[in-house]
Amino acid sequence: GIQVEQSPPDLILQEGANSTLRCNFSDSVNNLQWFHQNPWGQLINLFYIPSGTKQNGRLSATTVATERYSLLYISSSQTTDSGVYFCAVALMDSNYQLIWGAGTKLIIKP
Amino acid sequence: GAVVSQHPSRVICKSGTSVKIECRSLDFQATTMFWYRQFPKQSLMLMATSNEGSKATYEQGVEKDKFLINHASLTLSTLTVTSAHPEDSSFYICSARDSTLNTEAFFGQGTRLTVV
Lengths: 110, 116
Description:
The structure holds 2 protein chains of 2 kinds.
Chain A: E1 4-7, E2 10-14, E3 19-25, E4 31-37, E5 43-48, E6 52-56, E7 59-64, E8 69-74, E9 83-90, E10 98-100, E11 104-109
Parallel strand pairs in A: 2-11
Antiparallel strand pairs in A: 1-3, 3-8, 4-5, 4-9, 6-7, 7-8, 9-10, 9-11
Chain B: E1 4-7, E2 10-13, E3 19-25, E4 32-38, E5 44-51, E6 57-58, E7 67-73, E8 76-81, E9 90-97, E10 105-107, E11 111-115
């Protein structure tokens, strides 16, 4: 089945810094999503981005489907950005069952 | 975005009792919902796919009789942990997609279950 790898596994930054999180996947996908899991466990949808580039405030994401990777950019990090960032992919013929990466744990220090 | 409401957010129960967790899609219809379990410092593990009006599809290693799933309507799926034991303590999360759009999945707030 599809493998999803995220890097780095852990990232510690000072407030105000920029960061790039990467998600590699092993096969063509119909669906790719980025999530932020906050300290209370809530999964927050960041981007639905099977291909192309999207931006939402300080966050942006790019998926290069032909090369099977996606990048999540966080600019001017804030302490509230801390948490775990997950990438998940799905295939249409799998009933859109999401395959999850292991996540990147981001800590933003004040 | 679409809203998925999961209740309760936190529950403590005694060993041997059963606990029901509800997952509702508030502003869309979902023929399919998913139930996940998450262990500390790990990613989400799919337990089962809940299909409206039919039996759930369980992942390998998930006990059907312990984790009962009912998807009686297009907006509600329930997960009942039967005869709970301390090893069932975990974080359970549901998700749903808008059946008419077939795009992104949205997640409930999660339920922290502690069995004492």
